[in-house]
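Fresh eyes needed here. Have a critical look at this protein's tokenised backbone.
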Amino acid sequence: MAEDKGRNEGILDEEDLGRPVSELRDMEEPVSRGFLGRVLSKLQRRSLVGHLATMAWTASASALFEFLGMIFSFFNPGKPAGKEGPTNG
């Protein structure tokens, strides 16, 4: 704890933080592991929900495009589904 204050002291002295921030700097208290665990779990939960929402939108849009491609391929019987153009060889 003492070495953290010594390490941050040079950085904080170089910047003009103003009187209220300077007074609060001396009131530093250690953070409990339970608090850090709760904060990390909330961040991970929000990240997971964001990833799942993105995946749901992406998967549904991909499925929609695949179904549309299948429907349009039924109306274009002249070209086989797997070929893009003439092949050499």
User: Anything to note?
Assistant: The chain has two domains: 1-30, 33-74.
